[in-house]
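Structure first, sequence second, as always.
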C-alpha cells in the first residue's frame, strides 16, 4: 500500500484544546498584578518557582535518566548569583536573575566531567556532595554574609508595587519559557535522542547518538533553569542564607512533585505541584508531620502507581493533554 495513504499525527483534538487553554491561562496569569494583592503575588511566584524546579528535575531525570539529589546546589548558586551581581556589582536586580542562571550553568559545566565519572546511585550521591561543598564555600565568604546570610537591600530603592509586579512578571516569563522550551525540545531530534539515552546508553550510542555530549547539554540546561529558579525565589523573599539556599528540601520537593505527578511526562509536574501545595496548605499546622505525610504518599504512589498520578490517569482513560508520541494514521 502506498505510503502516501498515511499521515503522521503529532497532536490530537484534546491536545490542541489544551494548548489554547494554556494560552488563556497564561493571559490570566499575566494579568494578576492588575487585580491581586501582594500576598497572592508572592505566593504565586513561589508556586511558579517550584513548578519550574520540578520541570528541570524531570528533564534531567525523567527524560535524561540522570537521577540527581543535589539540585539545591544550583538553586543556591542562582540565589547567590543574584546577590553578587545586584547587591555588590550594581546590576539591576531584575537583570541579575538571568545572570544567576548563567552562574549555575557555568559551575555545572566546570563540574560535569567529574560528575559523569559516577554512575547511577553514585551520581546521585555525588551531586549531593557537590552541593554540600558549594554550601561550605559560600558559608565562608564574608562578602555575601558568610553563614548568617544577607538581605537584598538594593530592592528598597524600587517602589513596592513595581518591585512586586516586576518579580511576578519575571516568574510568569520563566514559567512560560520553560514550559514551551521543554515541550519543543522533547518533540525535536534532541528529545528523541535524550529518551533513547535514558532507556539504554549502549543502544543509543550504537545508533550514533553522542551520549556524552547529550548528557553535558541536558545537565547544563537543567542547571541553568534551576539557577533561574533560585535567583527568582530569593528575589521574592529578599533574603538568603546558606542553610536555606542549599537545603536538601529543594531536591526532596522536586523529586516528590515529579514522582507523585508522573516522572517522564509533561503533565506530571503540574499535577504534582498542585498536590504539593495542597498538602502544604492542609498540613501547615502540623510541623514535621507535613513532610512525613508527603513521604508516605510518595511511597504509596510508587508502590501502587509507579508512573505517578498522571500515569495512572492516562492508563485508565488514555487521556494525553500534551502527547509526545507520533501516530501513523490512514488518510
Amino acid at each position: 500500500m502506498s505510503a502516501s495513504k498515511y499521515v503522521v499525527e503529532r497532536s490530537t483534538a484534546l491536545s490542541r484544546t489544551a494548548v489554547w487553554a494554556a494560552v488563556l491561562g497564561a493571559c490570566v496569569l499575566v494579568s494578576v498584578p492588575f487585580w491581586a494583592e501582594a500576598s497572592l503575588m508572592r505566593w504565586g511566584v513561589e508556586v511558579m518557582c517550584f513548578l519550574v524546579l520540578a520541570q528541570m528535575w524531570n528533564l534531567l531525570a525523567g527524560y535524561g535518566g540522570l537521577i540527581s539529589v543535589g539540585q539545591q546546589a544550583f538553586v543556591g548558586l542562582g540565589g547567590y548569583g543574584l546577590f553578587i551581581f545586584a547587591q555588590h556589582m550594581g546590576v539591576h536586580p531584575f537583570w541579575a536573575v538571568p545572570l544567576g542562571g548563567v552562574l549555575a550553568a557555568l559551575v555545572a559545566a566546570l563540574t560535569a566531567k567529574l560528575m559523569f565519572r559516577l554512575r547511577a546511585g553514585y551520581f546521585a550521591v555525588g551531586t549531593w556532595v557537590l552541593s554540600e561543598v558549594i554550601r561550605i564555600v559560600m558559608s565562608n565568604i564574608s562578602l555575601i554574609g558568610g553563614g548568617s546570610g544577607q538581605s537584598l537591600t538594593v530592592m528598597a530603592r524600587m517602589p513596592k508595587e513595581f518591585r512586586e509586579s516586576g518579580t511576578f512578571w519575571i516568574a510568569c516569563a520563566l514559567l512560560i519559557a520553560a514550559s514551551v522550551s521543554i515541550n519543543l525540545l522533547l518533540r525535536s531530534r534532541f528529545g528523541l535522542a535524550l529518551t533513547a539515552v535514558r532507556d539504554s546508553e549502549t543502544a543509543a550510542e550504537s545508533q550514533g547518538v553522542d551520549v556524552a555530549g547529550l548528557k553535558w547539554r541536558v545537565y547544563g540546561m537543567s542547571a541553568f533553569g534551576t539557577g533561574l529558579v533560585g535567583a527568582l525565589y530569593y528575589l521574592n523573599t529578599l533574603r538568603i542564607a546558606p542553610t536555606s539556599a542549599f537545603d536538601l528540601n529543594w531536591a526532596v520537593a522536586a523529586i516528590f512533585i515529579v514522582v507523585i505527578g508522573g516522572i517522564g511526562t509533561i503533565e506530571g509536574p503540574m499535577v504534582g505541584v498542585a498536590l504539593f501545595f495542597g498538602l502544604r496548605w492542609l498540613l501547615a499546622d502540623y510541623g514535621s508531620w507535613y513532610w512525613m505525610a508527603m513521604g508516605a504518599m510518595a511511597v504509596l504512589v510508587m508502590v501502587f502507581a509507579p508512573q505517578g498520578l498522571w500515569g495512572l490517569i492516562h492508563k485508565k482513560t488514555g487521556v494525553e493533554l500534551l502527547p509526545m508520541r507520533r501516530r501513523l494514521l490512514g488518510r
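Margin note: The chain has a mean pLDDT of 86.
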